[in-house]
Amino acid sequence: MIRFAALIGASAIALGACAPTGGQVVSIPEEAIVAFDGKTEEEIMTRVAPAAFIASFEKVCEANVDNLAGALALLKSDGYILLADSGDVTAYAHPDGKPVFGFGGRNPRKPEVCMVMSRNSANLRSVTEAYANKLPNVLEVPIAGLAPGAEKAWLPGDGAETLYLTVNRTDPSLGEIFAFAIGKI
């Protein structure tokens, strides 16, 4: 029997880390219900080691920032399953507990933001900040308080119209959910 409450909880957590979903209808596909049968929220939204978190971000989000549809295709070819969809934000999870990914934007067919998400650990924040601060001529952009959970944002000074962002949301059952995002501005 599926722990449907856990699936709903993990879906809401993932979408909530991407963007506020207040008032939006969230759908959970049948494929996700089957794939995550019997799993807890903790098994769907796992803790990820900092090195794996950054490697996942680089491989899926950063390498495909100019083609986020390609990032989605990469995830699907790796066995990721659509976990939840709120219309403008989608979340993908892997049955083996790999990092969860979120995509968002004004047009669901053409996502503008990609993020990797994990239950927080003490090192995730410092690793992402160190990563962002290594960008060429990076400029930290004040963002705290402008969006729910948004903590820090950086613009690389290389002329690319790219924004890096960290988001931290708290969930009653899982604690802190940390996300590292990239998008075109």
From TrEMBL:
Species in which this protein is naturally found: Harenicola maris
Q: Which UniProt keywords apply?
A: Signal
Signal sequence, start to end: 1-19
Kindly provide the name given to this protein in its UniProt entry. Answer: Uncharacterized protein
